[in-house]
Design goal:
Layout: H1 2-29, H2 32-47, H3 54-67, H4 72-88, H5 91-102, E1 118-122, E2 126-132, E3 135-139, H6 141-157, E4 161-164, H7 175-185, E5 193-196, H8 202-215, E6 221-226, H9 227-239, E7 245-249, H10 268-290
Parallel strand pairs: 1-4, 1-6, 4-5, 6-7
Antiparallel strand pairs: 2-3
Length: 292
């Protein structure tokens, strides 16, 4: 074993100059702009391995290799878990999983002919006690994207917007109230804004919105929420005996992605996307089984 290891080490040492020469040759063949781009991508790829989650993957890999001489079964388990965790941290996998979820519903090609008589805008998080342009409290990124889409649709359809979302935590912002303020600042007439302030999850969004829709005789809601959230939102509205037209927005990945080697680097953002998909699938199953 020691002899083979020495031979392998000598081979690696002999090949290192060739590898270095190949990289050097590749670098010098590039023009100045291409060199800058190459260095940017190379540094991004390298930095991802010394920051979380990349550093954790390397530590888990080292642990798996170390355990191989002590307990091979345990070593294989650690290496297997490390491989799965690594894949979940890559945007290559995140694009596949999230892209599949976001493609389950598509917006109508001609929203003008959808027959929608109201836009239902679902909240997704707000921050309290932070300065905003015309008040205090701001929407998080996803609900802000949803709101922007709802405003543009309202300009086209000239129908009311029903904003749904309460205050989820004691230190979070009242979503519907903040959204209503922003809608008015963007030019939506006050008489075109309806707010629902009690809901704290998607099930309650659908339940309380259904009551308002029936009380005001709205028949054809246009549902606006993030693309990754749309499938579960539609399920909850269907359980309330409504069949809204889906208008997904706030897309997070390209639907026709192109491979690039940097998509193999571990990223916290990619892990978050994959976790979001798993959360949506789990919550959808809970809704289907228990209706909550």
């Amino acid at each position: 074993m020691e002899r083979n290891f020495n031979i392998s080490t000598e081979k690696i040492k002999a090949e290192l100059p060739l590898i270095d020469f190949s990289l050097s040759l590749l670098y010098h063949r590039l023009n100045s702009i291409e060199r800058v781009i190459f260095l940017i991508y190379f540094l991004k790829f390298g930095a991802s391995w010394i920051l979380p989650p990349g550093i954790f993957i390397l530590l888990m890999l080292a642990l798996g290799v170390k355990l191989f001489r002590i307990n091979r079964k345990l070593s294989v388990m650690v290496l297997f878990v490390t491989a799965i965790f690594y894949l979940l941290c890559t945007s290559l996998v995140a694009e596949k999983f999230m892209g599949w979820l976001e493609k389950l519903h598509t917006p109508p090609a001609q929203v003008e002919t959808s027959g929608a008589d109201i836009i239902v805008l679902l909240g997704g998080g707000a921050i309290s006690q932070v300065p905003d342009v015309d008040g205090v409290g701001a929407l998080c990124a996803s609900p802000a994207n949803r709101l922007l889409t709802a405003v543009r649709l309202q300009k086209i359809l000239n129908v009311p917007i029903l904003v749904s979302g309460g205050q989820v935590y004691s230190d979070s912002g009242p979503e519907a109230e903040i959204s209503a303020r922003v809608l008015k600042s963007l030019g939506v007439p006050e008489d075109k804004i309806i707010i629902e302030t009690k809901s704290v999850n998607t099930t309650q969004n659908a339940r309380y919105c259904a009551v308002i829709l029936r009380e005001n005789n709205f028949k054809k809601p246009l549902l606006v929420t993030s693309a990754f959230h749309m499938n579960r939102a539609m399920l909850n509205f269907n359980l309330q005996r409504f069949k809204p037209t889906a208008y997904p927005t706030d897309f997070t990945v390209a639907h026709n992605p192109i491979f690039h080697y940097t998509k193999l680097r571990p990223q916290a953002e990619a892990l978050l996307l994959n976790v979001t998909v798993m959360q949506e699938l789990l919550r959808t199953c809970v809704t289907e089984v228990f209706g909550i």
